[in-house]
Amino acid sequence: MVHRLSGSFAMVILANFAATLACDVNLEALFEPYMSPGTLIAEANDANFSDVASPRWSEWNSPTWTGAIKPETVQDLQNIVRIASAHNISFMATNGGHGTSIIYGTVTGVDINLENFDTIKVDLENNHLIVGAGVKLGNITEPLYNAGKAVPRGNSPCVGMIGATVGGGIGFETGLYGLSIDALESVRLVTAKGDLITVSDNQHPDLMWAIRGAGANFGIITEATFRMSDQPNNGNAVVGSFIYNSSRTLDVFEELQTLDDILPAELGVQLGISYDRTTSESLLTVDMKHFGTWETFQPHWNTAIRLGYTSATVKNVTLVELFANLDGPCQSGVYINGGTVGLGRTDPQTMQEVFEEMTEFYKNYPGYEGETLFQRYANNKTLETPLSTAVYPWRDTKTFWLHENIYTEPALEEPSIRLLLSLREKLQATSGFSEPHIYINYAYGDEGPEGWWGKANLAKLRKLKAKWDPKNLFGHGTPIFS
């Protein structure tokens, strides 16, 4: 028989077990009586632990899991929160496992794996996409394509849809549709009390403001509803990938500067610095995703030709093909850490200095496999949405710099982090912003709440945190109080 844990019964649990220490808890004995039959529970040293816990992207600074629970139902989630709160058991709800903030290495507790909440519904009548907490970005591509619809979304297919959204939500279609949080109309949320509530602009609007940018700090989102738009160009796009050697990089950066105020909404551009160890040279790859016709892409291709690429791939694709071929952070089993800063202007000389510093690092550390990315999306649509709708503050960002250190040798940790911090300081100095603009989904973790959410937002954000999560059950990876 499965027991259902009500709010009043949670108080009985608290009274009976308040003195229990988390380290002495037998997870199965404590949680299983109140779980559905399909819920899985494992201690960290159990043979099936890896089947119950969420997979982890990076081996670097991982949380220390004392156990894992993979709940089957929303009511299971409610019971987990109530019991864990009563016993002072730390936990974190996870899906894709892609956070690399340095703070994650300080987290100890139970992993709540949301994989079972993988429902997707395209509601054409109400123009809504409704996704569960276990849905990955790759899961929504075909349902949206088949319906002729789109929502603003991140790029990497293995990243959790809701997790990517509540940090802001950027991607190649940002120029067309704005941020993911701008299409987020409502969520179903398990609160710190274990209650299940609906949050929207009409129900708990202040909390909705906080969820749009800091959602991980206020509960476990079980379901999210997005407003859909018509998909661009009848579901087709032109993709171009152009590789430049070191003799042409400054010209490319100068060309990017000319687009600072006129980047077309239908064009997303990503510049990536990497290293070819066969030829022992650094390369700059310019990836273009053009959500328009071949004819309207031709001028961009002409520019790429003029800049003198060494090789290129250009083709028409469906949106299914486009998003299926965006690998992003989908590898695992290596050490990965990263960081970011937002740019309000393009400074070609600084970007060239970044290229040269990366080149020197590649030469000095043969085992290093990292890369630096400059993600450029038109922000006109993003700026149309008032700042007052969301705690996310950095709508004037034009380019998102993302640096990823990737390596297999632990000895590379210290020098790679020095590289990251050096590049970040260099780019911040010429970013055009006096206040660092930190996209929280890419954060290194040392920037703090002002860098993630802006100083002007902190008083309201902290007041809401104290109201909705007074025991600080949620948001351990990006804490509001620090």
Automatic annotation (TrEMBL):
Pfam families: BBE, FAD_binding_4. Keywords: FAD, Flavoprotein, Oxidoreductase, Signal. Residues 58-231 form the FAD-binding PCMH-type domain. InterPro entries: BBE, FAD-bd_PCMH, FAD-bd_PCMH-like_sf, FAD-bd_PCMH_sub2, FAD-linked_Oxidoreductase, Oxid_FAD_bind_N. The keyword Transcription does not apply. One of its GO terms (molecular function) is FAD binding. It comes from the Eukaryota. Residues 1-22 form the signal peptide. Belongs to the oxygen-dependent FAD-linked oxidoreductase family. This is FAD-binding PCMH-type domain-containing protein.
